[in-house]
């Protein structure tokens, strides 16, 4: 019941019902005002002897003629003079039963003093639809009492306004238009407010804060849109709670990884120390092979722990980053020189082709060395069977391109040195922060890592 009470549908049904009831009320009010207070409509009531058109005038003239039935000549003359004064611009004439003209007032045409029946008929024929407007009526509706004539210039008839009640149709139409306009205005305001609230909700959904989650909005009403706003706020609360739990879990994970990395380094150092001591002892061939395997696995585990610790610091934004202007050609040449003995020991053919001129870029040299170390280590781990590595670097328009290619089976294939992929993840994060593009193309014929700068970053 509460939902129906605050429903938008209920509100609009109320608007329609009020409109249905209010329409006849408007007609009643307008009618009462129209007929009782005509001055509100700037209209005047009809005068006592006014006339509005030829038909009304003719009807009034015949009424006056009936009322003069049996009247004396003096009374007839007196009344005709009164009527001539009452009807503006009118002229009157009276011919008695004997055909003698008894009275002619304000009629310019000089009619005969004596009339025959033929002359009377000809007079009525000539004045029909002529100017001035002419109407003829028998006194008392009896030809034996004579007839009286009324003439009014048609220009005067055109100037005469209809009685105020003749405008009732116009007032009715005006009332209907006012009502319809009011109903449309109320409906427009109703839907405009709904649209405004929906746009406010849409803007709130598109407006994200620092956390990427929209801010809650104020619930204005308890209708359908209000329920939607309330549900939106509940969703925001759940998202914020979920984001908070995610951040807490991420912080806990990073703390756990950092603690494990630190705790694992201590036993690894101990194992390396004892392995070094065993290496000074006289061992059998099998013992020496086992010792070499221990050294290799300890070194691999050390690198894995270092990568895990570095990835945790990078993802949390706590890894030291000091970008500056450096010659990247010199840096790549130095890294290749450091790794050359390793590749030579593994039996690799090493091809190095670098630009002759320095290429400067805004990078962190330690980060770039770490990127190159991880890529070179990736070649050792995944492409030892190919026995080939090529490092090429060239200057391009507004930047450089660096390529490290091998002829191994590809990073997707199974290999003895395959790990968790933390090395390449660290490469991606570091290059992204240094605003360098990078791509890894791997097929069954080999893998190519590309690092490029397509535009000069500010240095």
UniProtKB/TrEMBL annotation:
Catalytic activity annotated for this protein? ATP + protein L-histidine = ADP + protein N-phospho-L-histidine
* E.C. numbers: 2.7.13.3
Major location (coarse): membrane
Bilayer-crossing residues are 12-35, 165-192
- Whether Membrane counts among this entry's keywords is yes
Name one cellular component (GO) term. plasma membrane
The record gives the membrane topology as: Multi-pass membrane protein
Molecular function terms in GO for this entry?
ATP binding; phosphorelay sensor kinase activity
Q: Does the keyword Cell membrane apply?
A: yes
Name the domain of life: Bacteria
The HAMP domain covers: 192-244
Keyword list, A-Z: ATP-binding, Cell membrane, Kinase, Membrane, Nucleotide-binding, Phosphoprotein, Transferase, Transmembrane, Transmembrane helix, Two-component regulatory system
- State its location(s): Cell membrane
Class of this enzyme:
transferase
Q: Histidine kinase domain spans which residues?
A: 259-457
Q: What's the protein name?
A: histidine kinase
């Amino acid at each position: 019941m509460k939902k129906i009470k605050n429903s938008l549908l209920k509100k609009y049904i109320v608007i329609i019902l009020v409109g249905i009831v209010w329409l006849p009320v408007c007609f009643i009010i307008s009618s009462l005002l129209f007929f009782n207070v005509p001055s509100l409509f700037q209209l005047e009531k009809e005068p006592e002897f006014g006339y509005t058109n030829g038909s009304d005038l003719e009807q009034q003239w015949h009424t006056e003629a009936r009322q003069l039935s049996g009247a004396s000549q003096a009374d007839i003359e007196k009344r005709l003079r009164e009527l001539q004064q009452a009807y503006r611009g009118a002229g009157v004439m009276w011919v008695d039963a004997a055909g003698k003209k008894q009275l002619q007032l304000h009629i310019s045409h000089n009619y005969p003093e004596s009339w025959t029946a033929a002359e009377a008929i000809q007079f009525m024929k000539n004045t029909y639809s002529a100017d001035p407007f002419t109407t003829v009526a028998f006194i008392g509706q009896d030809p034996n009492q004579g007839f009286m004539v009324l003439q009014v210039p048609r220009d005067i008839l055109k100037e005469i306004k209809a009685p105020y009640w003749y405008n009732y149709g116009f007032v009715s139409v005006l009332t209907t238009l006012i009502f319809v306009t009011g109903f449309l205005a109320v409906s427009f305001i109703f839907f405009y407010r709904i649209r405004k609230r929906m746009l406010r909700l849409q803007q709130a959904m598109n407006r994200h804060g620092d956390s990427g989650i929209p801010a809650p909005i104020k619930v204005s009403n308890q209708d359908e849109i209000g329920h939607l706003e309330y549900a939106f706020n509940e969703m925001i609360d759940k998202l914020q709670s979920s984001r908070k739990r995610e951040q807490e879990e991420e912080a806990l994970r990073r703390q756990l990884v950092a603690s494990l990395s630190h705790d694992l380094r201590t036993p690894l150092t101990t194992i390396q120390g004892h392995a070094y001591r065993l290496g000074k002892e006289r061992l059998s061939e099998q013992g020496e092979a086992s010792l070499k395997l221990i050294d290799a696995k300890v070194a691999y585990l050390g690198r894995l722990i270092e990568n895990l610790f570095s990835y945790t610091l990078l993802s949390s934004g706590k890894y030291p980053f000091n970008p500056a202007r450096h010659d990247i050609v010199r840096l790549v040449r130095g890294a290749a020189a450091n790794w050359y003995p390793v590749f030579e020991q593994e039996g690799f053919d090493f091809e190095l082709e670098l630009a002759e001129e320095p290429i400067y870029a805004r990078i962190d040299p330690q980060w770039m060395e770490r990127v190159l170390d991880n890529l070179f280590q990736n070649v050792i781990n995944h492409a030892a069977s190919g026995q080939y590595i090529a490092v090429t670097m060239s200057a391009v328009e507004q930047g450089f391109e660096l390529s490290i290619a091998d002829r191994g089976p590809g990073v997707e294939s199974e290999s003895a040195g395959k790990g968790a992929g933390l090395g390449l993840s660290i490469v991606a994060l570091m290059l992204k922060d240094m605003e360098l593009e990078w791509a890894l193309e791997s097929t069954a014929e080999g893998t190519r890592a590309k690092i490029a700068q397509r535009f000069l970053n500010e240095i």
